[in-house]
Amino acid sequence: MGMIEEVLTIELPVGESFRIQRCRYTPIKEKPTKRISVVSGIHGDELEGQYVCFLLGQWLREHREAIKGTIDIYPAINSLGIDSITRSVPFYNVDLNRTFPGSKNDFLPAQIADGVVNAMQGSDFAIDIHSSNIFLREIPQVRIAKSQEDVLVPLANLLNIDFVWVHDAVTVLESTFAHAMNTIGTKTLVVEMGVGMRLGMAYGHQLLDGLLNLMAHEGILDIEPLKVRFPIQSHVGEVAYLNAACPGLFVPVIEHCQVIEKGSVVGHIVSALSGEVLDEVIAPIAGILFTIRAYPIVYEGSLLGRIFGEKQ
Amino acid sequence: MKRFDIVTLESPNRAPLRIEGFLFGDETTTGPSVAIVGAMSGDHINQLYVASGLVEYLRTKEEEGLIIGKILVIPAINAYALNMGEKNWPLDKTDLNMMFPGYAQGETTQRIASRLFEELKGYDYGIILEGRRDQSMCLPYVKLMQSGYEDLECTKDLGLGFIHYRPHDPIETAMLQYNWQLWETKAFSIVFGKNGAIDQGTSNEVHTAIIRFLSKRKMLDIPVFEGRKSNLVDPNRITLVKASRAGILISKVQCGTHIQKGKVLGKIIDALSGERLEKLISPCEGIVTCQYAHPLIFQNSIVFRIASVDLCCQIDTEK
User: Fold this and answer.
1) Which residues of B touch A10 (CB under 8 A)?
2) Which of A96, A226, A285, A311 is in the most buried spot, having the most CB atoms within 10 Å?
């Protein structure tokens, strides 16, 4: 069984402490090879990573002899948020993943960010598991800033995910956990899969296989690498965005993760008041519908889906 | 005065969002122009109050023929959040002041930001009324980011006591001030008050400072008293007094108080037993510029910020 440790505690005003816990697994006898941190719950409404942490912990408890490195599991970074269905840091209402690398001399969210970075500093790898949010359902994917492409894409290809999305650098993303960790030399992958506030069991098992495979390749686990799927690479095609043209209730007509033709109907935006169909949402390109809206209320501009297809 | 809709956005079930502007002065004027942006968050009540107070003030001055520039005031950007006690955009919780310059084909708040920004482009000056992002209250100060396009001199015409002049953080590149500066408007923020409340004293001070600015920058033809000589400070060199324990905070001083080294600033008591856990002592002489404003305090929170002359006024203004 792993060693449960508190890596950050901060007193709360009334008889309680905020805490971040990790469960650390190390080799039974020998010196650890490399160190990996598996992280979830930076956003309190994203729970898919909790299930992956459980599955990984369960596997490690049953295979202690295979452990050759240090494996740290952090299921709940924003523990206040997770236990209260709150995406941001409660009380401050601040997105924790926009406060990295944080500071000891700033407000509580920044202190949490600073504590997280300090706890994980020295890890060779970090896997930051997100569930999109409550609005969108995603296939398992890793998103990588273009500047990190050479280092991180080969690692992402080991993770048994469906899609590797290399995107242009966005300055705002310099305040994320992944950027902070990559900056200090920890190779950090951001996984997005499923939907907020829910568990997708199949995705959890899929990513577990990917984590085991990655750790086998890196000598952290003494097991044979697993046979994993090779993800679609974003550079071979393009992403088309479907944004709502008007407000209303979005009713999809096709399932997530379907291959669709250009011009096919993805769904409708309807009026609950008048009974009218306000807009028909049409696929602008052919490809795979890798993102679909899960929360039906939409305003003009709300993201309804993303399609990955061939470059036009 | 021309009252008009800058942005309207239909909602699935609510009445449409309207971002209203109040324009003063002749639109054909060749005089200087300024746009003043009020509450972008639903808890920026102080900012809403100051902006709406300016609308009322400028309306009377226009009737007296004293407007000589072009002045746009937008009191509330995020009325949807203000009307339901939310801080951010009520559906997806995004911060409107993290969406600039906006994207016309993007998500809802990117579209709102884009339409708003189109209206704001081209003004000579841009004033953003901001609250703090933490649980603090503060003396009014100018927040000026060093984008490479900022104009420090104009901010001194406000006559406020402090100008926080610092490099921008990466996250601030999505904020209005930074983008407005890039589009060649001399933009700056005035940060003041306590979120979710109205502080009459600081609101009056900001109101007066903006009128002084409008007068000195030739947009309002009235005589004004001189303000303070602004002190340029590096916010990273302000002395922090932190809470080593959590509990109930009892403060003994107010923002603006000049304190001596060793002065008792407050105490923290155990929220359950009532026992005194910590006495908060000033480590230096200076002025309390900011203090934690919620009665319950977390461990390690910053309780007081103290500006002292010998520490935080060493700032390099050369670019």
Assistant:
1) 246, 298-300
2) A96
Question: What are the structural domains of chain A?
Answer: 3-230 (3.40.630.10), 235-310 (2.40.50.100)
Using alpha carbons, select from B68, B17, B67 the residue that is nearest to residue B42: B17
- Is the distance from CB of B38 to CB of B52 less than 8 angstroms? yes
Token pair listed for A25? 């697994």
| Nearest chain A residue (CA) to B10 | A247
Rounded to 10 degrees, the C-alpha dihedral B72/B215/B33/B192 comes to -50
pLDDT mean over B236-243: 91
Yes or no, beta carbons of B107 and A111 under 8 Å apart? no
For B92-122, the pLDDT digits (tens) are: 999 999 999 999 999 999 999 999 999 999 9
Q: How many CA atoms lie within 13 A of B297 on its CB side?
A: 30
The CA distance from A12 to the nearest CA of chain B, in Å, is: 5
Name every chain A residue with its beta carbon within 8 A of the beta carbon of B110. 301
Cβ atoms of residues A298 and A281 within 8 Å: no
Contact B21, B177 (CB under 8 A): no
Specify the range with the lowest mean pLDDT, choosing from A194-208, B139-153, B226-240.
B226-240
Which residues are within 8 A (CB) of B311 and not within 5 positions of it... i.e. 6 or more apart? B237, B238, B239, B284, B286
Instruction: Count how many Cα atoms sit within 13 Å of the Cα of residue A215 in the half-sphere of its side chain.
Output: 30
Among B88, B105, B246, the residue with its CB nearest the CB of A243 is B105
Q: What is the CATH architecture of B2-232?
A: 3-Layer(aba) Sandwich (3.40)
A5 three-state secondary structure: strand
pLDDT in tens, A129-156: 999 899 999 999 999 999 999 999 999 9
pLDDT at B276 exceeding the cut of 60: yes
Q: Which fold has domain B235-312?
A: OB fold (Dihydrolipoamide Acetyltransferase, E2P) (2.40.50)
ipTM of the shown complex: 0.90
Distance from A35 to chain B by nearest Cα, in Å? 29
Chain A residue with minimal CA distance to B174?
A: A172
Residue A11 has its nearest CB partner, among B92, B174, B245, at B245
Q: Residue B93: list chain A partners with CB under 8 A.
A: 87-88
Interface probe, candidates A10, A92, A106, A107, chain B, greatest B C-beta count within 10 A:
A107
What's the predicted TM-score (pTM) here?
0.93
CB contact under 8 Å between B10 and A11, yes or no, is no
